[in-house]
């Protein structure tokens, strides 16, 4: 949903998640041209070598012609080199894995038989909690996704949020352009149809981006401060838009607040399903988690060749995605064990919950980050979806992997306790390790070019969540980076 994009007219290198085991070998290579793109790291000349990492050997083997020189680094992490021909193209050094793809098209129609529908009531009830956690663990090991019902967000709220988004997209184009994302240093606002790419395919959708309603950091200085500090700030709310849609702003803000509450609860369940304390992710995420809400409209099309695809195959890059979709359909997920695509059909009064690459990385590949895509919408009705991406506070240091993680298929959850059931402690710390997170604190000014020094810090202390988020959004919206981050204000 937020992976490797560029405006129309710019071709970017294809990134791939390489599905292979440590004994796989590859020999062929493909080169991809790219126009000039300004990105936040040092420049490379004619040839740029990019590395893609897969965190689990359980992904099905397929033939991918863009890979050479595959080498196993650890039993659970394998890397391969992808060579692409570029011109004045730079590549950030933030800790990410690359977008997944497959060369073999296999589709199953048994999606809703495979993806479990879990009830949050069962998690809240101590008597049914062990079963809930067992089913969650099984789902996240096998697929990386599930439906959640009885989630506490009313039908009136979800219907109101969906209507507000539909009303916005129905506005005249000139009105919507008043919220163009390029106007916002904080990557908030409207994106026209056909202006993003996923896996070198143009996405056929309009988009609208929101985040936490906060004041911008006055200490932020482009090219000197860490780039991710520029993410903090307000959303765009043009006065003329609010005059036309008076319920738009309060509906969106309240929906984000309720999704944040739900996401905290889901992450608490995820922590327990991993055999960790219920406090684990609350401590890690800090008092002010960073989140992004995206609203998307997929117009119905007749000429599917011209429209390419609704959204190309990819993994979300963060920790948790909670998705509200309408009843039109078109979302597909990929089964890791077989490579088959399954229709993730709409289920009334549920959200789809998906793990991202950060969770896959933190669990050493135990929990899957689901590869998914949106097919061309030929239903005759426009499709609307609202994904919510939930991540730690921007300055959080995320450990490379949970220590001593039990990788058994099944655990004993008979004594699992939620946060409110645990004894109260004096303050919460980072994963119980005594490392306190600091939310919304300006770090010492550091030029973006000091990537090698930052990489050394990342290796020792874990990786920076804000840098990881910024790498994602700047790839989606390079025009924002070019306008706001390449010169001092």
Automatic annotation (TrEMBL):
SUPFAM superfamilies: Clavaminate synthase-like. Gene3D superfamilies: B-lactam Antibiotic, Isopenicillin N Synthase, Chain. Coiled coil: none annotated. GO terms for molecular function: metal ion binding; oxidoreductase activity. Residues 289-392 form the Fe2OG dioxygenase domain. Keywords: Iron, Metal-binding, Oxidoreductase. Belongs to the iron/ascorbate-dependent oxidoreductase family. This is Clavaminate synthase-like protein. It comes from Linnemannia elongata AG-77.
């Amino acid at each position: 949903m937020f992976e490797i994009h560029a405006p129309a007219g710019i071709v970017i290198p294809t990134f791939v998640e390489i599905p292979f085991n440590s004994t796989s070998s590859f020999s062929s290579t493909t080169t991809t041209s790219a126009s000039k793109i300004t990105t936040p790291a040092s420049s490379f000349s004619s040839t740029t070598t990019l590395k893609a990492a897969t965190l689990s050997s359980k992904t099905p083997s397929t033939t991918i012609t863009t890979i050479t020189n595959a080498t196993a680094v650890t039993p659970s992490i394998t890397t391969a080199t992808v060579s692409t021909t570029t011109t004045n193209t730079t590549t950030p050094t933030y800790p990410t894995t690359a977008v997944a793809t497959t060369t073999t098209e296999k589709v199953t129609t048994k999606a809703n038989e495979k993806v479990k529908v879990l009830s949050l009531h069962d998690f809240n009830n101590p008597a049914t909690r062990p079963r809930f956690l067992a089913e969650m663990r099984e789902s996240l090991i096998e697929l990386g996704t599930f439906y959640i019902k009885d989630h506490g967000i009313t039908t009136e709220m979800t219907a109101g949020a969906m209507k507000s988004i539909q009303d916005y997209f129905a506005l005249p184009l000139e009105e919507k352009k008043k919220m163009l994302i390029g106007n916002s240093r904080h990557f908030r606002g409207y994106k026209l149809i056909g202006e993003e790419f996923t896996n070198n395919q143009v996405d056929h959708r309009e988009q609208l981006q929101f985040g936490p309603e906060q004041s911008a950091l006055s200490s932020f200085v482009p090219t000197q401060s860490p780039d991710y500090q520029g993410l903090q700030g307000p959303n765009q709310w043009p006065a003329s838009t609010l005059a036309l849609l008076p319920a738009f702003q309060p509906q969106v803000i309240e929906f984000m607040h309720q999704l944040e509450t739900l996401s905290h609860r889901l992450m608490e369940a995820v922590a327990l399903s991993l055999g960790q304390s219920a406090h684990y992710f609350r401590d890690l995420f800090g008092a002010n988690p960073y989140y992004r809400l995206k609203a998307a409209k997929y117009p119905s099309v007749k000429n599917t060749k011209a429209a390419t695809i609704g959204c190309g195959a990819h993994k979300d890059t963060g920790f948790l995605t909670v998705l509200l979709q309408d009843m039109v359909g078109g979302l597909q997920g990929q089964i890791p064990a077989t490579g088959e695509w399954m229709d993730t059909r709409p289920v009334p009064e549920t959200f789809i919950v998906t793990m991202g690459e950060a969770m896959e990385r933190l669990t050493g590949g135990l929990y899957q980050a689901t590869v998914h895509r949106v097919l061309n919408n030929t239903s005759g009705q426009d499709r609307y979806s609202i994904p919510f991406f939930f991540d730690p506070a921007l300055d959080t240091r995320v450990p490379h992997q949970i220590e001593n993680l039990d990788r058994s298929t099944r655990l004993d959850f008979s004594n699992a306790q939620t946060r409110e059931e645990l004894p109260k402690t004096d303050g919460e710390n980072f994963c119980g390790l005594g490392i306190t997170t600091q939310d919304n604190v300006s770090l010492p000014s550091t030029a973006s070019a000091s990537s090698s020094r930052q990489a050394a810090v990342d290796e020792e202390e874990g990786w920076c969540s804000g840098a990881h988020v910024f790498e994602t959004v700047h790839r989606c919206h390079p025009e924002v980076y070019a306008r706001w981050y390449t010169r001092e204000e």
